[in-house]
Amino acid sequence: MDHSFDPNQFLKTAQDTFFKVQGAWNKQDTATLSRLCGTELMQTWEQELSQLRASGRQNRMENIALSSSEISEAWTESGQDFITVRLQANLLDYTVDAKSGAVVSGSDSEPIHFEEYWTFSRPVGPNAWKLTAVQQA
What we know:
The protein is of the alpha+beta class. Helix content is 32%, strand content 45%. Helix 1 runs antiparallel to helix 2.
């Protein structure tokens, strides 16, 4: 429906969002996450961050290296455009005690490789995209 849509430009935007989300998550920056994400996903992430804070912990993701990304599917449904992007990356993913900084889970030295599918949506037409779902492969 959007004749100005450029798949390559969208992929760059998705990659940029990937890094912005990781950075905002590390800072527990819910304002930035809210600008990038849809309401339902944001509610889930706010619960996760709240549980981390309540337990005195902080999740950290560092040394992020995006190894590949590609659009895996695109569709329109009920007046919304959807695009899913497959992302493969390596990073350090670990949780620390907020007071001492001690690692309580994960590793701050051994990177993990992961693959996720990030789905973005927007009202049909040349509107702004929001991240609405993240699924682990």
